[in-house]
TrEMBL record:
Domain FAD-dependent oxidoreductase 2 FAD-binding: 35-469
Record-level Gene Ontology MF annotations: electron transfer activity; flavin adenine dinucleotide binding; succinate dehydrogenase (quinone) activity
Catalytic activity: a quinone + succinate = fumarate + a quinol
Active site residues per record: 337
Family to which the UniProt record says this protein belongs: Belongs to the FAD-dependent oxidoreductase 2 family. FRD/SDH subfamily.
Keyword Iron-sulfur: no
Entry protein name: succinate dehydrogenase
Keywords: Cell membrane, Electron transport, FAD, Flavoprotein, Membrane, Oxidoreductase, Transport
Gene3D superfamilies linked to this entry: FAD/NAD(P)-binding domain, Fumarate reductase/succinate dehydrogenase flavoprotein-like, C-terminal domain, Succinate dehydrogenase/fumarate reductase flavoprotein, catalytic domain
Swiss-Prot/TrEMBL GO biological process terms: anaerobic respiration
Native species: Flavobacterium cyanobacteriorum
Protein EC: 1.3.5.1
Length: 666
């Protein structure tokens, strides 16, 4: 099957505008006769459901949480990008487009990225109109801060809880439509299969997680806004319920899975403290605006800190290695996430790590507290040489900007980050890979769409900070509502899709068989036992750095682990009622297939780019070394029975507006 991305012709700045002018529309009277299923109610799914219902479609929205408010988007902290240029620092739509393509190490589709940059400004207007309390500066305009990979301030924020506030805006819009009856909300329901009728996605099979009932739901189109697959590593910053199941079921029904090896390791996470942990906690990238990252210059100092004989505050300034500022003077602590993560790993591997495991670096706010304190003292006409006063005033500024993040850190680590530098280390955070979609956000299954983190389309091999919220809301509010209409215009006379069709019966039977098989398995080990083992294979051999030998081993080990899982997993309870072990078992079964494809994709890509770092392909300075001649394409995998037999399809990436050069943040 040829991959047709359906990118419009014409100059990149006009593609989206011209395209919208020419696509088919559905008139309001006909929208009342069309049903759309939206799976997932985070920023992408929630905004899509609200907008489609507002337009007049009948929407069925599904989430496995007890409320859309609990979608993992709520955990996003730092902000959302938009090219408003309120700071007057040289930002523009083109610069946001360029930064995103460069930040993704030139492995993203130009047309989609430019469209994202264009609609970014609309998102902010929409959210302000909804009442989202974005921070404002002294003149009343919305405030901005910087994020990694840019030289401008374009990130809008609401303290350290931007995702929560944006999700409440989308949730309010959804509630308005739920009240009108235009959205039927199915909380505590999980999609377990995609139903295809005559080649088109026409519904889903879902399980009521409270009663255990397996349900059939039909629609004229299915939209997946189900997030990423970072939990294939077991430990990640994702909510524990985040999973790949909906996307993977679509993949097994014909939707190609693109670039699974592109996974982001976030540099500012609270380090792993032991084997008891079930997830990791992210500290927002926004902290890198004011926090300076360092390790001791001397190995003996690092050793003394690890052994508790020395405190970081006792290390003299001249004995600290601010390694990001040293290696990347132009961007300093605000280099992109993949660059910062590998730099932290390099220092810790060299023996300079600062916690008991040796896998942590410092994020220090002492100099910012002094800088802000002196500034505030001058503003207030007070003595800028009074150290105690300066520290108090500076601490108040930092608390205003990041207070909830500092509070969260102190509760988890039991150290005061105003007094002692935070400890951070990279951890799995976001997945740039996902279901392959064309310019319309449609997968290779006709009528099945993927939006937000569930698709691959906008971030290439590395996502810039504050761009996840931008993409989710762009897709949901401003892209999908246009493009899906072009497809649904053909369905105005189709009428209701019956759930009595044999395709629904077959899909339901397949789901029931898999559930029964897991429940009836007489194994000896828990689901988490297998998930943790998978995570260890993934982190050790498919993590921050990869090589051909490790990837080859990982593929074989994951396949063997999958066989063992089906032989020896024990799932207590039964199908007909609340059974969270059964829920986890279904999800881990899918992770055990995805993990193998993930490693296979990483092995075939003989280059380093963004979050995909192959040790064999690096510059003399240890930076990622791309191979544009052989690998400037999207790797889209077709399911053929099992991951080892997946077939590779390539979508060539054409760069007409950005020159392909080796990334440099020096």
């Amino acid at each position: 099957m040829a991959l047709d991305s359906k990118i419009p012709n014409g100059p990149i700045s006009q593609k989206w505008t011209d395209y919208k002018n020419k696509i088919n529309l559905v008139n309001p009277a006909n929208k009342r006769n069309i049903d759309v299923i939206v799976v997932g109610t985070g920023l992408a799914g929630g905004s899509a459901a609200a907008t489609l219902a507002e337009l007049g479609y009948n929407v069925k929205a599904f989430c496995f949480q007890d409320s859309p408010r609990r979608a993992h988007s709520i955990a996003a902290q730092g902000g959302i990008n938009a090219a408003k240029n309120y700071q007057g620092d040289g930002d523009s739509v083109f610069r946001l487009f360029y930064d995103t393509v460069k930040g993704g190490d030139y492995r993203a589709r130009e047309a989609n990225v430019h469209r994202l940059a264009e609609v970014s400004t609309n998102i902010i207007d929409q959210c302000v109109a909804q009442g989202v309390p974005l921070a404002r500066e002294y003149g009343g305009l919305l405030d901005n801060r910087s994020f990694g990979g840019t030289l401008v301030s374009r990130t809008f924020y609401a303290k350290g809880q931007t995702g929560q506030q944006l999700l409440l805006g989308a949730y309010s819009a959804m509630n308005r439509q739920i009240g009108r009856g235009k959205i039927q909300m199915y909380n505590r329901h999980e999609m377990l299969d995609l139903v295809i009728v005559n080649g088109k996605a026409r519904g889903i099979i879902a399980r009521n997680l409270v009663t255990g009932e397996i349900e059939r739901h039909s629609a004229h189109a299915v939209v997946l806004g189900t997030g990423g697959y970072g939990n294939v590593f077991f430990l990640s910053t994702n909510a524990m319920g985040s999973n790949v199941t909906a996307a993977w079921k679509a993949h097994k029904k014909g939707a190609y899975f693109a670039n699974p090896c592109y996974t982001q390791i976030h540099p500012t996470c609270i380090p792993v403290s032991g084997d008891h942990q079930s997830k990791l906690t992210l500290m927002s990238e926004s902290l890198r605006n004011d926090g300076r990252i360092w390790v001791p210059k001397k190995l003996e100092d690092a050793q003394a800190i690890r052994e508790g004989r020395l405190k970081p505050t006792q290390i003299a300034e001249e004995d600290r290695d601010y390694y990001l500022e040293r290696r990347y003077p132009s961007f300093g602590n605000l280099v992109p996430r993949d660059v910062a993560s590998r730099a932290a790993k390099e220092r810790c591997d060299a023996g300079f790590g600062v916690n008991k495991t040796g896998e942590a670096v410092y994020l220090d706010f002492a100099s910012s507290i002094i800088r802000y304190g002196k500034e505030q003292a001058k503003i207030k006409g007070l003595n800028p040489d009074d150290e105690k006063l300066v520290k108090q005033l500076g601490t108040e500024v930092i608390e205003n900007k990041y207070g909830n993040l500092f509070q969260m850190y102190e509760k988890i680590v039991d150290e005061n980050p105003y007094e002692t530098p935070m400890m951070i280390y990279p951890a799995v955070h976001y997945t740039m890979g996902g279901l392959w979609v064309d310019y319309n956000l449609m997968t290779t299954v006709e009528g099945c769409y993927a939006i937000g983190e569930a698709n691959f389309s906008d971030h290439g091999a590395n996502r810039l900070g504050a761009s996840a919220l931008m993409q989710g809301l762009a897709d949901g509010y401003f892209v999908l509502p246009y493009t899906i209409g072009d497809y649904l215009a053909k369905d105005i006379r189709t009428g209701k899709i019956s759930t009595d069709l044999p395709e629904f019966e077959e899909a339901e039977n397949n789901v029931r068989t898999q559930l029964e098989s897991l429940i009836n398995n007489k194994g000896t080990h828990t689901v988490d036992y297998f998930h943790k083992r998978l995570g260890k294979i993934m982190w050790d051999k498919v993590g921050m750095a990869r090589n051909a030998q490790g990837l080859t081993e990982a593929i074989a080990e994951i396949a063997a682990l999958r066989d063992e899982f089906y032989r020896d997993v024990k799932v207590p309870g039964d199908m007909y009622g609340l059974n969270q072990e059964l829920e986890k078992a279904m999800r881990v079964a899918d992770f055990l297939e995805l993990g193998e494809l993930f490693a296979k994709d990483a092995l075939h890509r003989n280059e380093s780019c963004g979050g995909h770092f192959r040790e064999e392909y690096q510059t003399e300075e240890g930076e990622a070394q791309r191979d544009d001649e052989n690998f400037a394409y999207v790797a889209a995998w077709e399911y053929r029975g099992k991951p080892s037999e997946a077939v590779l399809h390539k979508e060539p990436l054409v760069f007409e507006n950005v020159k392909l050069v080796q990334r440099s943040y020096k």
